[in-house]
Amino acid sequence: MNPLVLIIDDDERLGALLTEYLGRFGFTVRTAAHPDAGLRILKSEPPDIVILDVMLPDMDGFAVCRRIRETSRVPIVMLTARGDVMDRIVGLELGADDYLPKPFEPRELVARIQAVLRRGKTSEEDEVLRVGALELNWTARAARIDGKDLVLTMAEFELLGLLVRNRGRVLTRDRIMDAIKGLDWESYDRSIDVLVSRLRQKLGDDAKRPAFIRTVRGTGYSFIGGSGE
After folding, report:
1. 154 and 73 in contact (C-beta within 8 Å)?
2. Where residue 63 sits, what CATH number does that domain have?
3. How far apart are CA 107 and CA 25, in angstroms?
């Protein structure tokens, strides 16, 4: 079955062009010119990935992203008209998996879609790993803490899995960038820090007194596995 892409963008001409272009790469596309229509499609025909424009009528892309994240972990690629750094920060903090500034080459969008979907399908282990109160299910791409489900995006799960697999080791930002493909790390290096901050919040971790993720100033991050420091 072809991956289903939902495009929420009020530029109907762009939607038509992308529908035709993405179809060449084996994607089925649904388009919505209004946020409400996009949210209805999301509920009735859950897509494999959402392409979400920031500039939308009545409800901006950030509000739509927040609404989606209330009920779904579907990957989200946000389109930012100006390539504004603040747009990228806000999008990442709300749970977007990637972003692409307009104007963009359609082939680059295809590459980003493929990279994000690949992240979700990769399964290094077919088992459940438990580290203290934390439990990771590699096959289901799901995590729990103290028996409660953690609602993680693909990027957050990928980061958590990388840290857990390298427990006790300090991972530099470059190492994390190399391991987690898909995000435009080069244009905004602080993307890693935003992603870590999001993950910490969901883990209930305190950066000053960490139980899971320790910051190594000037270098990167280390997973300390609930041991505290």
Report:
1. yes
2. 3.40.50.2300
3. 10
First-residue to last-residue Cα distance in the chain: 48
152 lies in the same domain as 88:
no
Domain that holds residue 103: 4-121
Q: Is pLDDT at 87 greater than 90 in this prediction? A: no
Judged by phi (left if over 0) then psi (alpha if -120 to 50, else beta), residue 85 lies in alpha
CA distance 189 to 70: 27
Relative to beta strand 220-223, strand 170-172 is antiparallel
Nearest to 133 by CA among 120, 151, 145: 145
Residue 183 above 60 pLDDT? no
Query: For position 132, which CATH number holds?
Result: 1.10.10.10
8, 60: one domain: yes
- The type of residue at 141 is R
Distance, CA of 37 to CA of 195 (rounded, Å): 29
**CA dihedral over 6, 60, 186, 153, signed as positive or negative:** negative
- Please indicate, yes or no, if residue 197 is contained in any of the structural domains: yes
51 and 93 part of one domain: yes
Domain shared by 142 and 75, yes or no: no
Statement: the pTM of the whole predicted model exceeds 0.85: no
